[in-house]
């Protein structure tokens, strides 16, 4: 059973995601916080932490702080996030002989847990090394990045900056390398989100917002200032309630792209 608190957090995360991806100031704050100390958290939990404590810099559970010989101060309010739980569920299926067999499959569910920021604790000084999470990624190379994903890239001298048919991506050769990367991430988002049975019911405006917001988040994660996407996103400010679950799709897709680039 999913607890009421978990359900409330999931609803709140949906609302926050929509608000963030339609407000460039909040989007900048979110990406800065994730890059500056929350790299081990999902984008979703970073949003939840940011919403509850804007100045949070390093979060951990109560017991983890005890292990670090730090103690949560009396009266401090915890920060609620969603922690994954993996358990086995049984499923029936037919084998090649037509017989029904039962198999166990891993299923992921989430539960609400509480963490505290380092500023809410006292105790032994922490020994923290400098993060190297961005090293080597500030000068991303399009040819190398594009090979990490399943959509081949070709180039043209057409009037469009970029285009995708859901199977491959075409980019104009007219832009500088940074602009081409931003366009690539835009078209990659379209490819991942808007083809096949995926989101055919979405309006063209919503599809464009999703692609621009994904491109903006990914660019910001690697130090690229994508003003083009920022301008487009700004036109949606105040319309978060019209987005359905677009915010969560944007956040999940951007995180998938960022994580894929980082591990390669």
Describe the overall structure.
The strands form three sheets. Strands 1-4-3 form a three-stranded antiparallel beta sheet. A hairpin with a 4-residue loop joins strand 7 and strand 8. It has 264 residues and is an alpha+beta fold. The chain is built from nine helices and eight strands. It has one domain (4-71, 132-262). Helices cover 42% and strands 20% of the residues.
Describe the secondary-structure layout:
Layout: H1 4-20, H2 24-35, H3 43-52, E1 59-60, H4 62-67, E2 70-72, E3 79-94, E4 100-117, E5 121-123, H5 142-146, E6 153-156, E7 162-164, E8 169-172, H6 177-193, H7 204-221, H8 227-234, H9 246-262
Parallel strand pairs: 6-8
Antiparallel strand pairs: 1-4, 2-5, 3-4, 7-8
Helix pairs in contact: 1-3, 1-9, 2-3, 6-7, 7-8, 7-9
DSSP summary, beta strand count: 8
Structural class: alpha+beta
Poorly predicted ranges (pLDDT <50, ≥5 residues)? 129-138
- The largest sheet has its strands arranged as 1-4-3
Number of helices: 9
Domain module tally? 1
Strand percent estimate: 15-25%
Q: Give helix and strand order, one letter per element, not per position.
A: HHHEHEEEEHEEEHHHH
Helix content: 40-55%
Overall pLDDT metric: 83
Brief overview:
GO terms for molecular function: single-stranded DNA binding. This protein is an alpha+beta fold and 264 residues long. It contains 9 helices and 8 strands.
């Amino acid at each position: 059973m999913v607890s009421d608190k978990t359900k409330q957090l999931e609803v709140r995360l949906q609302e926050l995601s929509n608000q963030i991806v339609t407000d460039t100031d909040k989007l900048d704050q979110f990406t800065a916080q994730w890059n500056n100390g929350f790299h081990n958290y999902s984008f979703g939990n970073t949003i939840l932490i940011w919403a509850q404590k804007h100045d949070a810099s390093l979060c951990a559970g109560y017991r983890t702080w005890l292990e670090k010989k730090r103690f949560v101060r009396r009266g401090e309010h915890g920060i609620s996030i969603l922690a994954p739980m993996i358990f086995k569920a049984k499923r029936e299926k037919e084998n090649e002989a037509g017989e029904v067999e039962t198999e166990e499959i891993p299923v992921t569910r989430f539960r609400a847990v509480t963490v505290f920021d380092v500023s809410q604790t006292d105790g032994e000084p922490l020994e923290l090394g400098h993060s190297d999470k961005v090293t080597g990624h500030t000068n991303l190379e399009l040819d190398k990045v594009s090979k990490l994903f399943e959509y081949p890239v070709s180039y043209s001298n057409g009037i469009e900056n970029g285009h995708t048919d859901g199977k491959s991506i075409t980019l104009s050769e007219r832009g500088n390398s940074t602009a081409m990367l931003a366009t690539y991430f835009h078209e990659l988002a379209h490819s991942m989100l808007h083809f096949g049975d995926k989101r055919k019911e979405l309006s063209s405006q919503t599809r464009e917002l999703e692609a621009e917001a994904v491109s903006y988040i990914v660019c910001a994660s690697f130090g690229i200032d994508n003003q083009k996407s920022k301008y487009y996103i700004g036109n949606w400010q105040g319309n978060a309630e019209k987005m359905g679950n677009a915010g969560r799709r944007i956040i999940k897709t951007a995180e998938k792209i960022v994580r894929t680039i980082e591990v390669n």
